[in-house]
Specification:
Strand 4 and strand 5 form a beta hairpin. The chain has a single domain, classed as Pnp Oxidase, Chain A, CATH 2.30.110.10. Helices cover about 15% and strands about 35% of the residues. The longest helix is centred in the N-terminal third of the chain and has 9 residues. Strands 1, 2, 3, 4, 5, 6, 9 and 10 form an 8-stranded antiparallel β-sheet that branches. It is globular and about 50 Å long. It has about 180 residues and is an alpha+beta fold. It is built from 5 helices and 12 strands. The structure holds flavin mononucleotide. The site of flavin mononucleotide has 20 residues, from strand 3 and helix 2.
Length: about 180
Amino acid sequence: MKETSIEKALTYIEPGPVVLVTTFDGEKNNVMTISWTMAIDFDQHLVLTTGEWNHSFGTLMHTGECVVCIPPAEMLETVVRIGMVSGADTDKFKRFHLNPLPAQTVQAPLLDGCIACLECKVTDYIERYGFVVLKVTRVVENTRCQDLRMIHARGDGTFTADGASFNCRELMESKLPPGL
Ligand SMILES: Cc1cc2nc3c(=O)[nH]c(=O)nc-3n(C[C@H](O)[C@H](O)[C@H](O)COP(=O)(O)O)c2cc1C
């Protein structure tokens, strides 16, 4: 895992991937699957939609931090399985053979094997919609990841993976943020 510029956070959230969110409650690591994510500005803020039905939510609110990890398409089955059990009664790191790596700006771990990990602090919570607003504090990329296809949920139990990409940077030049 190699640190990269903070501006790159947007390029991992704007495409709307399914993410794995890790937390550390002071004793144990946990991880949950989240498909409802959104980039909201050019200042490294993003939103996760979740709530108290998830064990991770209490830790997220209590510690005020997490790591948002971008899993590759080859991890799809594990990503779905992680989202089908709770850290309240399962050690998901053991169950799914996940390898936690130390982060630098938060206590929650990076996830080995993911395309990139965004270390984040909670800045806001909008209860009505379950919006947890996060600010990215550090971005690391997995320089050895062979599969760089992000996973996208359709909402009906089926998924797609990144396919063709198109470069329209010239057309968008005046709207692109500095550093990207
Ligand atoms: C594909 C997939 C996407 C999910 N997306 C969300 C989501 O966007 N928000 C949410 O609160 N839960 C979502 N879940 C459910 C949580 O991942 C699930 O409740 C998880 O087991 C919570 O773990 P925890 O209790 O250890 O925190 C999703 C589950 C799956 C399988």
